[in-house]
Amino acid sequence: MNTESRLRDIIKSGDETRSTLRDLIAGTESLLRSTASQAGSEAEAARDRLKQQLDAAREQTRGWEKHAWRRAREVSQATDGYVHENAWKTVAGAALVGVLVGMCFMSGNGRD
């Protein structure tokens, strides 16, 4: 599995997780709205706990997302730095391989 494929899988997984969390939060908010008319201290206490847990889940999700973006920027900057530092090595290596392949093709033409 190449790096590009792994990156696509990570992005897809992150999108699916984010979608699932959004659905969970939306469903929880809907449940809170639908039970708002219910009276009683137990129902009120349950709604308060659920609202606190929902707020905590939202905050934690924001933290994960911020961390993921920060990490992606770090990886991108490191990759960019590596490519810039080793550009001539890469170009020289590709040119050498090209010359060797060309020499192999040219030496094979005389045998036909």
Automatic annotation (TrEMBL):
UniProt source species: Achromobacter seleniivolatilans
Record PANTHER family: INNER MEMBRANE PROTEIN (PTHR35893:SF3), INNER MEMBRANE PROTEIN-RELATED (PTHR35893)
Location of the DUF883 domain: 17-62, 79-103
Family: Belongs to the ElaB/YgaM/YqjD family.
Alphabetical list of InterPro entries matching this protein: DUF883_C, DUF883_N, YqjD/ElaB
Transmembrane segments: none
Keywords of this entry: Cell inner membrane, Cell membrane, Coiled coil, Membrane, Transmembrane, Transmembrane helix
Protein name (record): DUF883 family protein
Cellular localisation: Cell inner membrane
Membrane topology: Single-pass membrane protein
Pfam families named among the record's database cross-references: DUF883, DUF883_C
Keyword Lipid metabolism attributed: no
